[in-house]
Each structure stands twice: as C-alpha cells, then as structure tokens.
Automatic annotation (TrEMBL):
Keywords: Isomerase. GO terms for molecular function: amino-acid racemase activity. InterPro entries: Asp/Glu/hydantoin_racemase (IPR015942), Asp/Glu_race (IPR001920), Asp/Glu_racemase_AS_2 (IPR033134). It comes from the Eukaryota. This is Aspartate racemase. The lineage of its organism: Eukaryota, Sar, Stramenopiles, Oomycota, Peronosporomycetes.
Length: 362
C-alpha cells in the first residue's frame, strides 16, 4: 500500500521590508599641534604631559591625535633675538634724537641682524596646518617655550599665523597664571626662575602683577647670569644635556629655589621649559609648590580639544623620575669664572612694538 504525500501549501512571495538608514555623524577630528624645536627636549616633555593628563579610558584609541613638528635648525635663539631687538630699538631712538647724525657710538651696521624666531615657527606652523587641513582636522597649537611668548616674538607669530582657518592658539604663560590661581588661590608672592630674555621682557610680570601678585626672582647681575648659564652652557647646562641633568646644574637650581624661598615665595614658576627636567618627579621643593608651565599648556590644549578627556587637576599621578641626574665630565675650562653676557637696552620694560625690528622672513 503506497502512502500519498500531502501536497504542500503554495509558498508566499517574500514581502519587501524597508529599512530606514540612520545617518551617524562622525565627530570632527581635532589635532593637537606641538610647535617644537625650542628646545627639542621640551617638545617631548609636552607630549608626555599630554598623555599623562588625558583620560584615555585605558586604551590607545582614547588618546587625542598629536602632531609634533621639531625644526630646531630653523629656530633662532629667543633670548638672542630679544637682545637684538632691544639694541636695535635703542639705536633707532638715538638716531631719532640726534636727527640722523652719524656720530652714534654704535651704528646699525655693526649689529648682526637676527631673525625673529616667529618667522621660523611660522614656517613650521605652515607645515603643520597643511597636515591638519589634509585630514580636515581642527588644530590646537601650543609652543613649549617661555621666552617665545615675549611680546615681540609672540605677537609676530600670531600676526603671521592668526589668520589660518580652524586653529586655536594656546598662550602658555596666560594658562600658567590661571593654573597658579587654581592650585593656590591664597598665593600672593610668586617666585620665578627664567632665562635672562624672559626676565628682561617682563612677560610674566605683565600677567601676574595686574592680578595682585608680587614676583620675586634671584638677584640681578651675577646670580641671574649664572642661572642663565645653567640653562645655556654647552657642556653642563640643562638645555644641552636634557633629558639628563648634570650635578652642577641640579645643585645650582636647588640653590636658586632656596633663595626664592628666603624671599617669601609661595610658589615657584619653572620659567624655562628645560628647568622641569631638573625637578623631575617633584611637585614641591623646600616646601614650596612648583608650577610647571608645560603642565598648564598640556592641560589647556586637551581642554580646547575635548574637555571630556581632561583628567581632574588633582587626579594625575606623580610623574616618575625618568630623567635621573647624570654627572657629566666637565672640562677645566668650564669651571672658570663666568663671563657676563652683554644685554643692551631696558631691562624693566617691554620693548615698544613700534620699535621692534622686523627681519625679512622667507
């Protein structure tokens, strides 16, 4: 007996289902731009501080994009330029007062022309901006150099780059003052260790004094000259050895900090971007809070890029002392008395913008 199979029901034709596409907008890329080379080690430290102060949620993709250009060969020395600008201004004033007389002791021809560091940095910025534009990214720019923020240099840099689209410039020194106000609101006396160029430009004074702060520094003359030499000496100065620090350099800066303590400083601004290498891993010294302008700059750049990724100010862990003090073999010549550098021009006021020479920038 054969079994008949029941006929299957006819298949229904498939029904077309309309799927609504949801458009998702990808957040626009933001790039942090480190205009480095002033000096080169400072740019590396700034990049490290950006990583340290970023809330990355524990993954690589949580970090911000960073573009670091370090073109030291195209960067004239900032202090050297300020000396040149001051001397050129003095020569121009003398010429005006003497109605063009050629009896001036120093002629303009005898002064070696020094290009404004803003020119070289503007060329670096152009490369960086081209990279950001290619990726359609907004650019947040910072320069890790205190002396670069002196008015004759910073103003020229902004004049040359401020017109660029989708760019935010972060002023490191203004952010440093705000950082002092946040970290120690009761502070009234601020200690400052800096190059002679930064000191003579009074750029920190102009920001701090209108807010009621008193700025204290090491004694003028030999002590300030020695401090400057502790940064610039080509054998044992921190600029030439960073990230390592010579024992002589470390001992000098410890002594300067104690001098500021004796003058009643409540905080000390490490006013040259290589000085933090001397105090690596320290938040205080001789009981005084140390203020690193690079930390203020790093945090401000993160804030301008994406505030949600900025760690709370007191949550960042103490930086390990990655840069141990390395005694360097110093020749006998370096132990000779320091030869004072000649700084021409006023040391208590900023050179008027109208008197600042503008070097031809290619």
């Amino acid at each position: 007996m054969s079994l008949a199979c029941a006929s299957s029901a006819p298949m229904e034709s498939p029904v077309a289902v309309k799927v609504k596409k949801i458009k998702t907008t990808k957040p626009r890329e933001v790039m942090l731009g480190i205009c480095g080379g002033v000096g080169p080690a400072a740019g590396l430290l700034l990049h490290q501080l950006i990583l340290q102060n970023t809330d990355s949620a524990g993954e690589d993709q949580g970090h911000l994009n960073v573009c670091h250009f370090s073109r030291s060969e195209d960067m004239t020395d900032r202090t050297e330029y300020l000396v040149y600008a001051a001397s050129s201004s003095a020569d121009a004033t003398d010429s005006d007062s003497e109605c063009g007389s050629c009896c001036s002791e120093v002629s303009c021809d005898s002064v070696k022309e020094v290009e404004n560091p803003a020119c070289g940095m503007a060329r670096t910025f152009a490369m960086m901006h081209a990279a950001a534009t290619a990726g359609r990214a907004r650019l947040v720019v910072g320069v890790p150099c205190n002396t670069f923020h002196a008015q004759p240099i910073w103003d020229e840099f902004i004049r040359r780059t401020g017109h660029a689209s989708d760019v935010d410039h972060v002023h490191m020194l203004a952010e440093t003052v705000a950082y002092v106000e946040k970290k120690l609101p009761s502070c009234k006396r601020v200690g400052l260790m800096s190059t002679t160029g930064t000191r003579n430009s009074r750029v920190y004074h102009d920001l701090l004094e209108p807010r009621g702060y008193t700025v204290v520094e090491v004694n003028t003359g030999a002590t300030q000259q020695e401090l400057h030499e502790s940064i610039y000496n080509r054998e044992w100065g921190v600029k030439s050895t960073a990230p390592s620090v010579s024992a002589r350099c470390e001992a000098n800066f410890h002594r300067y900090a104690k001098q500021l303590q004796e003058q009643g400083a409540e905080v000390i601004i490490l006013g040259c971007t290589e000085i933090p290498f001397v105090f690596a891993g320290k938040t205080h010294f001789v009981g005084i809070l140390l203020i690193d302008p690079m930390v203020a700059l790093a945090r401000a750049m993160i804030r301008e890029a994406d505030p949600s990724r900025l760690k709370p100010v007191d949550s960042t862990k103490k930086v390990p002392n990655m840069y141990s003090v390395v005694p360097l073999s110093v020749s006998k010549a370096s132990s000779a008395p320091l030869v004072p550098l000649k700084y021409v021009g006023a040391t208590t006021a900023t050179t008027p913008s109208s008197k600042i020479p503008r070097a031809n920038c290619s």
